[in-house]
Every structure is written in C-alpha cells, then in structure tokens.
Design a protein that fits this description.
Blueprint (H helix, E strand, L loop, with lengths): L2 H28 L1 H14 L38 E6 L4 E6 L2 E9 L3 E3 L6 E3 L4 E4 L4 E7 L4 E10 L4 E5 L10 H4 L12 E3 L1 H10 L5 E5 L1
Parallel strand pairs: 1-11, 9-10
Antiparallel strand pairs: 1-2, 2-3, 3-10, 4-5, 6-11, 7-8, 8-9
Length: about 220
C-alpha cells in the first residue's frame, strides 16, 4: 500500500470520528422538543423566591402624629378577637394589641421615665413591669393637682386609678402639653402611666374590657 492510499484512509477515519462525536449535539439542536425539555427542567430546578412577610408595623403612621391614630387602618373589632390581651414595651415606646400570639394593632406610646434604682443601681422605669389586668375605673378626663398634669380618655390597669392608659398630657387649662406630646412613640416621659395618641386613648377607654391582661416589659 503506497503512501497516498494510507493518507486517504487516515482522512476518512478522522472524518468518521468527527461525525460520531458531534452527532448527538446536532440531533438535540434539530429537535425542538428536546430543547424545550431541557429548558423546562432548568426552570423547575430554579429556587422560587418569595417576598418576605411584612412586619407588624407596616401600617404605622409616619411621621408620628399624636392627634391621630397610630395606624392608618381601622382599629380591630374585638367581637371577632378570641384571645385579646395587651403588651406594652417601655423601651420600644410601643403598645401592642394581640389576638393570641398575633399582633393585630400597634400603638405609639410613652411610658415612665427611667431613673437609677438606689437598691440595685440599675435604671428602672417609673412604670411598673409585670402582668396586670384592666380595671373598671375609666373616664373622659382628669387632672392631678399635685402633678399639675391631666389627660383625656383614661382607663386603669393598676391600683384603681393610679396607673392608667390615657392620652398625651393636658395642662391646667385643659390644653394639650405639646412639648410632652411630642415625646409620643420616641422616648419615655410619664410619671408611670402609659400615654397614647388622642384617638388611641379614646379607643382604649371605650373598648378595653375589664379583666383584659396587660403585660408590661422593659
């Protein structure tokens, strides 16, 4: 066998190897059903991304306005709430209305100022912490002569009128103390009661059932 024939046979052999190697790819490219199946399998394997759940304060009114409700949605209908209770977080300046473990409404609030406890040396709020229960004492307004301060729309939760939920404070003339009201939802400032916006306090006076659990932390 001469050299030319050997080269000719070798060329044919290389051509056959190349055809065998690229044959499956040509088949896949020419078959739209196969391409579709590959794409669908890739789509199915892609993880599904979902938006995270909105937080409990998504309806909070911003900026804070003590003339208005804390949220921009209606207050809860307590006739539809099975396990109602209230939690006050003194450090966060928030009062939460719960149905069981679910927050159903959040209110801006202001609790008692912090001062160093002479016994422990730790900072302690003028508002007592612990578990309490709403009491029967409530009304549209009051004025504490010794403190030279009053408020509207109050309801008691400890010591039958000593510790209350009530509106931002009023002065002797019945006008709201705007300097103190500006603290709502931002910092502490009361003598021990829980201050709320005017509409929030009014709702609490008119709707909090006697015996409702009030948990105060912070």
């Amino acid at each position: 066998m001469n050299l030319r024939v050997k080269h000719w046979i070798y060329g044919i052999f290389c051509l056959l190897v190349a055809i065998i190697a690229i044959g499956p790819e040509l088949h896949a490219a020419s078959n739209p059903d196969d391409k579709k199946a590959v794409v669908e399998s890739q789509v199915k394997e892609e993880p599904v991304k979902r938006e995270s759940a909105s937080n409990s304060e998504e309806h909070m009114r911003i900026p804070i306005d003590w003339h208005k409700s804390s949220e921009t949605i209606p207050y809860p209908d307590l006739s539809k709430v099975k396990h109602f209770w209230v939690k006050v977080d003194l450090k966060k300046n928030r009062t939460y209305l719960y149905d069981g473990s679910k927050i159903i409404y959040t209110m801006y609030s202001t609790g008692g100022v912090y001062a160093k406890d002479p016994k422990t040396g730790q900072m302690k709020s003028a508002t007592p912490t612990g578990t309490f229960y709403v009491q029967q004492e409530r009304g549209d307004n009051f004025f504490n002569q010794s403190l030279k301060e009053g408020a509207n729309y109050y309801v008691s939760w400890k010591n039958h009128g000593e510790y209350l939920f009530h509106s931002v404070p009023t002065k002797a003339d019945g006008q709201y103390n705007e300097k103190e009201a500006a603290k709502l939802g931002k910092t502490q400032g009361s003598h021990g009661c829980i201050r709320l916006s005017i509409p929030d306090a009014q709702w609490m006076e008119h709707n909090l059932p006697v015996g409702t659990k009030v948990e105060i932390v912070g």
